[in-house]
Amino acid sequence: MSGARPGDVSGDGTSGGGAPATYPSTSEERRGVRMRIAHLTGWLRRLDWLSRCGLFCLLVLVLAALGSMVNLGGDPAEIAGGRLQPPGPDHWLGTDNLGRSLLPRLLEGIGVTLLLSSIAVLVTAVLSTALGIVAGYLGGMVNNLVMRVVELLYAFPSIVLAILVAAVVGPGRPAAMAAIVLVTIPLMTRLVRTASTSVAQRDYVTSAVVSGVRLPRILIRHVLPNVAGTIAVQGTYALSVGILVEGGLSFLGFGVQPPQASLGVLIQEGGVYMVAAPWLIITPGVVLILAILSINVVGDGLRDRLEPRETRSLR
Amino acid sequence: MRHTNRTGLSIACGVTAAVLITAGCSGGDTSTDDTSTPAESEPGYLAVADSSLPAGGELDVQTHIDASVATGLDPQLADLAAAWQLMSLVYETLVTVGPEFEIEPALAESWDMPDDTTYVFHLRDDVQFSNGRAMTADDVVGSLERQLELGSVWTGQLGPVESVTAVDEHTVEVALAEPYTPFLAALANVPASILPMREIEDGTLNPETEMLGTGPFVVADHRQDVSWRFERNDDYWKQDEPGVDAVNVQIVPQEAARIAALQDGSASLVTLGNVDSPALLQGASDVSVLTQANTDFYYLMLNSQWEESPFTDPRVRQAVNMAIDRAQIADVALAGLGHPTGVTPAGLPGACEPGDLPSGMADLDAARELLAEAGAENLTFELAIFSTDPAPAVAQVIQQSLEEIGVTVEIEQLEETSWNGKVYGEAPGRFDAALSWFAGYADPGMVTKWWNPDAAGFNLGFMESDAELTGLIDTVNSVPQGPERDAAITDLCAAVEDDAQMVPLVTRPSMVGYRADAVSVSLHADEGYGNPLRLLSEARMVRAE
């Protein structure tokens, strides 16, 4: 952590990173957009091939989820055929124990799982960032208070915490989301705080303080952009944890409610029929593994890009 | 009556829940697994234990739920079928139920009916409690009087008992205020068990914490929600029973874990809830799965008492009743093992024909009209279910069939304790609709008594009594078997659907899996009291040690 250059991340006006935010608003909008796309593609090219594969898989999953919104493959709740039929021309992925086609249910499941986890992780990111930056920058009592509470949460095994939340809130999507947030907050807050602590000691922060810049502005303009990399990387990991927690909760019956499908629900339902109808667990299982793997790989790629100090020193 | 209701609250889950709780347990009509047919079975039996095998050995059993903590170990308070099955290993009743729902002798070796309100029971003279004391007429009189005073869920089932008197040491006379057709069938269930009244009265036995009965087994160890160990009662009155030295019961809520235990041999007999378990275990060597066709049935509660419920309007209830496709529930959710039923359980002698009822006609236009009249065209309601198989599947089929008349069902799936709290926890119950099952018993009149909430008590939070319905229930239960009763039953089935506060759906099959290389078991093809362990004392170990 020590001896790193400040302002490694673009977007910080004081470090002159040339971020989009610093363009004068009077310049041509189109040119700006084009430059942003060029910036993005260039950035993508700098990701390793593995991360690009992960990103591609994620894109496919997102498209599949969007497909479920227009009922691609049929109505997921409709009893469309015989029970437990193997994959065939009528039902590409077979049917479940109620004669529902697995394909639309799988698409719905991908959508529900991704959406639920993403929203939960966004909430986590916002909360963790706020808590982490404040604790890291201010230190002292605030730091102690925030970190002890977070550590308390950290002490619980994630699935136990999740079940506790579901028991209090009642099963369903809000409970699953709340559970994911509670489970992912501790790790993210700790890392953001650590990053903020080191940023808080940088010269440009000191200069800002000496120049009389007010606290909120310091936190938002100077600290936040420099911990953004950490947040992005941790966000991807939190997303995979979120998917796992959702899967676990639904597997235990505390997650989404029937007949809605999620990857966890499908695996739970399919698990019973592992021997008699293996397609019911294999397909959602593979998709779940793929989703988590992709997100982790993308997370690794992001870390290599955004937090190069750590990874390079490891290589 | 008020007394009944008060006690009823905690017991609420009573029979109802009793019922729901075994939702994963017993077995059913014909086995779909060819390998599971053990030799040639007798009519009315799915399997008959091989009595030529030597007695002895220990039987490992797994079931999905323990007896309720709330009511303790007192069989007269037991309101869950899960409790009945375990307590039936220790406690016995005057009479019992045979393979085709006929009433058979048990602790009473015979009985007479000098007139239609008097029953004279002749007790066996060779019965001892497991502490060695002989059972007498005083125990029988005391036990029945205790049950009548308790005001438990079962008190109402015993009917209009006026007096219970000991004629001599082995004869008991019960006088009823009026004829009551299901009386013997009501005596055949665990809550009517004969308790050691002398020990209870002198305080040496607390039936809530200890079990002391005349049955084939005694309790050696019990850890709530974990396990039971039952050891043989050496003084048991039936010759050559029990066939095993001990029964170890483990409480294993996860169906998959019970299936795995059966496959790897760590359990020799398990109760199963998944309707596909015969197919799932097909090919597992030496494993047999038998399906019992029960008189138990699923029903829908449509809350008429909570002001926020859409079902305060009877037309909305009737529309929902008409639109639910029972045949689809039976075929899809229960894999063809259940049958559509009216309020008298389909399959029970004397039950009404469900096809003639409004629910059997499936007239969706009439249902839509009723909804339109009630101004509830775009109805959305919440259906509370418990997560034990196959209730979620039943609920999802209901959801699909109601979509046909434009009704949206939002399923709320809870584990059983939370479900119980939601449905029976307060009055009025704060829910729109809920799904559960009732045990169907051995007489078509018995389960209909739950449609009179003033007598049943546990369902006062979501339904109110209807004078016409109550009158029909009383008629059905007081008229002797015959054409007059059949006509009353037909009227009652129609009245229940008209009232539609509790709507009967389909019968509930259940399964028992066992290892044919480890144990030889007896099992009735039909069961009415949620008790797959009814004939457990006949079981013999194939490899007795």
Automatic annotation (TrEMBL), chain B:
GO terms for biological process: peptide transport. GO terms for cellular component: ATP-binding cassette (ABC) transporter complex; periplasmic space. GO terms for molecular function: peptide transmembrane transporter activity. Residues 102-454 form the Solute-binding protein family domain. InterPro entries: Peptide/Ni-bd (IPR030678), SBP_5 (IPR039424), SBP_5_dom (IPR000914). Signal peptide: none annotated. PANTHER family: PERIPLASMIC BINDING COMPONENT OF ABC TRANSPORTER. This is ABC transporter substrate-binding protein. It comes from Phytoactinopolyspora halotolerans.
